[in-house]
């Protein structure tokens, strides 16, 4: 599903989309999570002799150039043409960035702690837009840029492909720019002003919709919600400002804007992280009624007040309750970091549990969470993906690390609701759903690598704890009763901190997967990018991520009391 970058609505395959054409210029390394500077697009690397050229994604190679793969050995970088054997003693690598630092890492290795995988992007000062199928503009190449400038700039930003409806490009975006111009004339020319387009089709109802339509609508709303929260966070952290909200597709005679309130207000309320009231932080008016900008009835103006502390659009770390985990509140995390507790480094254990049937009397609490395993037809890789993506293992790990005893994540146990006969009420009992593994060692290594590639561990000052500490252990609780195990099976079970561990290779068997987590004296984020908080640079019209150390300093800064 391709969505328009402006209105967020879906671009149908048979609709005229837009290609971006541009000329030579600057090069940057970019990560995938932050904001992309205007005009940047992804590029690949090609060579001609000793000359390096960067190409826009999908472009034709320049005459005489060949596309290359990057290899490294002891810090030395070498390029190899596609199809060639890789250089002797060199390893194929991926490129990673951490602030201003670029690192090459073997493709088989996990992402370096604190780094994000990067692509090369190019920027142009002359961007031209044309409809698909039209002739390319004179003097430019379709989606191709060649770099004459050897100066490489490292910039954290997110690769966003420029895809627009033709109508958005030719009508909506110019109209938004005119609305912003008139607004600045009538408001304050020195104000921070951002904008966002949202199509009314997924703010308002669309009549009857089937489940698939509802799912697609939710995806579109979620994508726009992320954009809105990023811009609100940037303004709250940049001494206030305004967001012009273009309700694309709103009927001229329709003055109802409550659908946007329903969509946005709960999310905006979550960004009040300094104990202020909603009415003190936000104000909303239609652009034409309040600021006498006539003819812009489909625009709202959202005023965003400054924050007395750092405003974070997404914390990417969790806290645990007795029956679940949930997003942590700003004040809770602020207190947690200020207290700087020295927690023990002992992994959570399940005393007395050596076989799966011993879990029948173990119940969920703040340190134990159980997850069902319904399908036995999955291979080890699919099971790993289910645990990571569908059951959010990294989120549970981030929550457990904040407790004094850590926690246990059990995959393969289902809490079933039953009627308590003779008493007339329903309760829950545990039912084991054995996980069939082909090879425990390979499965454990794969699951562990996945976790380490996702989580970010730092101390209370925001310094990466490197090398990555062992904050979890993966155990396997056998489902085969002891009396039914063969002598060979009996040999491969042992206790490790009160837990059974299987050391066999290639033996398919039934287990409950147990991930034991220890407390951490610091913060564990369930996403490598860490917390998402932004600033707006009005001079360069650029939204940038706040560095982790700066974010923690701002988070824990004491508020100045009002006299």
Major beta sheet summary:
10 strands, mixed
- Number of β-strand runs: 33
What fraction strand? 25-35%
The number of helices is 11
Shape: globular
Span of the ends, CA to CA: 55 Å
Helix content: 10-25%
Domain module count: 3
Spans where pLDDT lies below 50 across 5 or more residues: 19-38, 120-161, 482-507
**How would you name the oligomeric state of the polypeptide chains in this document?**
single chain
Question: What is the CA-atom radius of gyration, in angstroms?
Answer: 27 Å
Helix/strand class: alpha+beta
Mean pLDDT: 76
In short:
The chain is of the alpha+beta class and 563 residues long. It is built from eleven helices and 33 strands. Strands 2, 3, 4, 5, 6, 7, 8, 9, 10 and 13 form a ten-stranded mixed β-sheet that branches. Strands 21, 22, 25, 27 and 30 form a five-stranded mixed β-sheet that branches.
Description:
The chain is α+β, with helices and mostly antiparallel strands and 563 residues long. The chain folds into 3 domains: 20-154, no CATH class; 166-312 and 532-554, Methyltransferase, Cobalt-precorrin-4 Transmethylase, Domain 2, CATH 3.30.950; 318-525, no CATH class. It is 22% helix and 31% strand. Helix 2 packs across helix 3 (258-270) and helix 7 runs parallel beside helix 9 (440-454).
């Amino acid at each position: 599903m391709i969505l328009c970058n402006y209105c967020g609505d879906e671009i149908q395959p048979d609709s005229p989309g837009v290609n971006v054409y541009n000329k030579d210029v600057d090069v940057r390394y970019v990560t995938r999570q932050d904001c992309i500077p205007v005009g940047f697009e992804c590029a690949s690397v090609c060579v001609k002799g000793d000359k390096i050229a960067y190409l826009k994604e999908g472009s034709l190679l320049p005459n005489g150039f060949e596309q290359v793969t990057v290899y490294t050995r002891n810090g030395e970088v070498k390029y190899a043409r596609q199809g060639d054997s890789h250089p002797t003693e060199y390893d194929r690598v991926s490129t990673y960035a951490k602030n201003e630092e670029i690192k090459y890492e073997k493709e088989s290795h996990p992402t370096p702690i604190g780094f994000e995988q990067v692509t090369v992007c190019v920027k142009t000062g002359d961007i031209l837009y044309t409809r698909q199928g039209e002739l390319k503009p004179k003097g430019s190449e379709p989606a191709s840029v060649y770099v004459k400038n050897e100066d490489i700039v490292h910039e954290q930003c997110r690769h966003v492909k420029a895809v627009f409806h033709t109508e958005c490009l030719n009508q909506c975006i110019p109209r938004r720019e005119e609305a912003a111009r008139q607004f600045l004339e009538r408001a304050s020319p020195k104000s921070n002003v951002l904008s966002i387009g949202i199509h009314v089709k997924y703010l308002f109802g669309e009549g009857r919709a089937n489940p698939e339509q509802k799912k697609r609508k939710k995806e579109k709303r979620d994508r726009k919600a992320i954009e809105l929260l990023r811009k609100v966070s940037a303004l709250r952290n940049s001494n206030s400002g305004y967001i012009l909200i273009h309700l694309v597709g709103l009927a001229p005679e329709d003055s109802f804007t409550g659908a946007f309130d329903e969509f946005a207000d709960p999310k905006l309320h979550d960004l009040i992280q300094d104990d202020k009231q909603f009415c003190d932080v936000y104000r909303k008016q239609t652009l034409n009624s309040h600021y006498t900008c006539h003819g812009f009835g489909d625009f709202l103006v959202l005023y965003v007040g400054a924050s007395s502390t750092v405003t974070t659009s997404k914390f990417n770390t969790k806290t645990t309750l007795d029956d679940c985990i949930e997003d942590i509140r700003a004040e809770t995390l602020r207190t947690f970091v200020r207290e700087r507790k020295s927690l023990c480094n002992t992994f959570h254990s399940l005393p007395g549990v050596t076989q799966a049937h011993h879990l029948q009397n173990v119940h969920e609490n703040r340190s134990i969470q159980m997850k069902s395993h319904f399908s036995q037809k999955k291979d080890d890789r699919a099971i790993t993906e289910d645990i990571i993506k569908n059951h959010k293992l990294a989120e549970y790990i981030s929550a457990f690390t904040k407790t004094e005893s850590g926690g246990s994540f059990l995959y393969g146990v289902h809490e079933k609701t039953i009627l308590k006969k003779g008493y007339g009420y329903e309760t829950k009992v545990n039912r084991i759903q054995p996980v069939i593994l082909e090879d425990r060692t390979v499965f454990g290594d794969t699951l562990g690598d996945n976790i380490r590639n996702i989580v970010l561990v730092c101390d209370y000052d925001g310094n990466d704890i490197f090398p990555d500490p062992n904050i979890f252990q993966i155990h396997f609780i056998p489902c085969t009763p002891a009396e039914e195990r063969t002598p060979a099976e009996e040999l491969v079970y042992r206790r490790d901190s009160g837990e059974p561990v299987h050391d066999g290779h290639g033996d398919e068997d039934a287990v409950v997967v147990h991930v034991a987590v220890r407390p951490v004296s610091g913060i564990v984020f369930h996403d490598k990018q860490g917390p998402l908080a932004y600033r707006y640079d009005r001079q360069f019209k650029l939204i940038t991520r706040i560095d982790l150390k700066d974010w923690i300093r701002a988070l824990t800064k004491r508020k100045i009391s009002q006299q």
